[in-house]
Amino acid sequence: MNFENFEKNENVKAELNALEKSRRFPHALIINGGNNESRESLSILLSKWAVCKNEDKPCSECIPCQKAEKGVHPDIYFAKGSGKTDVIAVEEIRNITRACSIIANEADTKVFVIKDADKRMGVEALNAFLKTLEEPPQAILFLLTTEDAGVLPETVLSRCTVLNLEQSSGFSEETLEKAKQILLNITELNEISLLKSTSVLNDKSKALELLPAMRAILSDALSLTVSDETLLSKEYSETLSTKLTKKKLIGLIETVNYAIYTISRNVNLSLMSTWICGEFRRITWQK
Ligand SMILES: [Zn+2]
């Protein structure tokens, strides 16, 4: 993916690049955290990417890219909302769902942008949206932006890929080393060492330090399955990329992403670390 106009977050770039290369691009993305401007700029970049007609997407030069930049592309819809608080009514979500089944005008993919979904979508609208996510239509990309994705129901979160824009300023070597060790333990098919290593995540500050580092290492390992590019030193991700398949790496990244959001919702950390342990085990050990 061409990030010329987006310099905000290395982790997010790596993750999007890896998803694009994996040819398993999600149909719903939540752009979370950061500030308004960075969320806006990433949603424009992804909209352009979805409609761009050139090889190196988004090129920012073709007519579809320019229309997307100006917010006038006929295949990019913005949830309008109504009333003083701009709330998105359930009827609007139903209209969006109906519009999903109509073929795109100019692009290959239709894009639906729901800004500030955490503040503008009530329970009914979220439930209606969930139904659409459960049976995702073809050639559709949903882009939601949120300041705090943690307030969305788990059922919705688990069906979206969450891109966290919070800056993760360089990891210390010690943190990376610990994160790498946890990740290597999950590949060793040893339940005890896996339980032991994930139990450090019971501590909130350790979890918030280690999980983003684990995500960065996993993103690198995923990149290594298709290219030679990594953000961190290859020593952290090389072994993982040879031991785990792309599908497993993506599953692990999604698990770590989800864990980071549950922490922001003050969940019981020992339950969370047990859950992570179970998910890691399930994803890594499945055939
Ligand atoms: Zn273009």
Structure, explained:
It is a single chain. By secondary structure, this protein is of the alpha/beta class. Helix content is 54%, strand content 8%. It has 2 domains: 10-164, Rossmann fold; 173-285, Zinc Finger, Delta Prime, domain 3. The protein has 13 helices and 5 strands. Helix 8 (173-187) runs antiparallel to helix 9, helix 9 (191-198) packs antiparallel against helix 13 and helix 12 runs antiparallel to helix 13 (269-285). The model has no long low-confidence stretch (mean pLDDT 89). The structure holds zinc ion. Zinc ion binds next to helix 3.
What key phrases describe this protein's structure?
Zinc Finger, Delta Prime, domain 3; Rossmann fold; single chain; 5 strands; 287 residues
* Beta-strand content estimate: 5-15%
Overall average residue pLDDT:
89
The strand order across the widest sheet is 2-3-4-1-5
The tally of helices reads 13
User: Could you tell me the radius of gyration in angstroms?
Assistant: 19 Å
Small molecules held by this entry: zinc ion
List the helices and strands and how they pair.
Layout: H1 10-22, E1 28-32, H2 36-51, H3 63-70, E2 76-78, H4 90-100, E3 110-114, H5 117-120, H6 123-134, E4 140-146, H7 154-157, E5 161-164, H8 173-187, H9 191-198, H10 204-226, H11 238-243, H12 246-264, H13 269-285
Parallel strand pairs: 1-4, 1-5, 2-3, 3-4
The protein binds zinc ion (ZN).
